[in-house]
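Interim report, section 4.2 (structural modelling).
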Amino acid sequence: MAEPTHPHAVLTAERLTKRYRRLTAVDDVSFDVRPGVVTGFLGPNGAGKTTMLAMLAGLVRPTSGRVLLAGKPLQERSPEARTIGVAIDSCGAHPGRSARQHLRILAGFARLPRARVEEVLELSGLTDVAGRRVGTFSLGMRQRLGLAAALLGDPEVLVLDEPANGLDPEGIRWLRTLLRERAKRGRAVLVSSHLLSEAAHTVDEIVVVRQGRMVHAGAIADLTPAGGVWVRTDDPGRLTEAVVRAGGQLTPDVTSGRHLIDGLDAPTVAEVARRAEVDLHELTPQSTSLEDVFLELMGARS
Amino acid sequence: MTLVVGEVRKLLTIRTALWFGLASVALAVLNVVIVSLASGTLDEVSEKEEALGGMPLLLLFFGLVAVTAEYRHHTAAPAVLMSGRDPGAVVAARLVATVVVGLGLAVVTTGASFALGVPILAAHHPGPDLTAAQLIPLAGGCVLAGFLSVLVGAALGGLVRNQIAALVAGIVVYFVAPSLIGMINTSAVDYTPFGSVQVLTRGVHGAAHSVPASALALAAWAAGLAILAVFAERRRDLG
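Predicted structure of the assembly:
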């Protein structure tokens, strides 16, 4: 569970709120980003994810609440390349500049050696196109360039806004590997997405927001759908008794003629039926996807 | 210093300065050729000076475009994030970098105008030739007007952020405001940015104020707008 102000949190959102006149983009959101953990920041489009990330990066001032970077308020410790690497909408590259020029300029601001530019170009797979103008880049290449810029200072925490957008399958695999490896090295990662199924491959913990408010925070494992088990039998009465005795619950589905058993997994249901000497003609685990769970959290599932 | 160097690098790795420099030189040369060859007889020193001077309009626009491009292309935030400095300091460095590059453009523009205009004036017009004692202050005035116009443009760009709105603001500050002020007090026009530039480039005769007073007035406008831009940046979001 991502409890706010964790003692080892590298980045903390403390009751952050951002209002633009009458619009409340972020409303009283608190969570932690910890070393060695990839935290997913999830929500539908327009949920306030980018505004939240911009506040965490110090680019947007919160209306109320505060951001702690390594335990210190942002006002006391300005974000810089070695502490926080940011790739969000508001961090672009001039289309007339080459990727290498862009990164060299940023490295200069952070007083990083030029060799680091070549390292991140290599890491992001952009070495071959480093001399090309950014204006000629595809969306995927721009995403890689944004990540390369965020990685320049080898920061303690990475803050990435929808980094998988525009990446091809190979790029997505590269991104997942990169983020997991950083977490393995004890670095913190905060990555936003509007697709839980995509984020599920990478993140350890999630924070879900809807209309600017946090609706869920916890380990991704806690969100794994329990699901039920569909069965078909000629003797529902005996099966019901056996299932209830085993702690489950059986609900008939009149349209399909099947029964849905909740509270027991498929092997247990099979064992219960065998002991009760009930023949099963079908035994199918219910397929509830993470996306269904996500939509349920969003209140969008009918 | 790191910030200024970085911002200068930014300007020199895109074509904005190059295109504005070329356009500014072309416009200055066109101006001096047209005025020298098509304006009848220029037999007085003040007329010859006026032919050589020119409105540094493109340099004002260079400052505007160079700074607003940072917001247009979302390149303003990375400098803040990478350097760990507050946005006001980054904008201050950006303004310094823009005027450093702008100074180069002003020198090249003035140099081109004089290199072509002085021989044409000497060859085609009667009356006394312009002496070094007249040319040097005039060149200094033109460079200063260009340099400070870049700062006015850059500061307006930093204040307004939106490129189109900033261009409109630049036109209003340089051309519309002086007309409105002139309706109230004619001599006050010489204290506006436009009026000061006119005095510095000898585009106006019989101005109420001296060249140093106009230089001071334009410098005050530029510095005031620059300070406003820096303070505004410190209070605004970059996201």
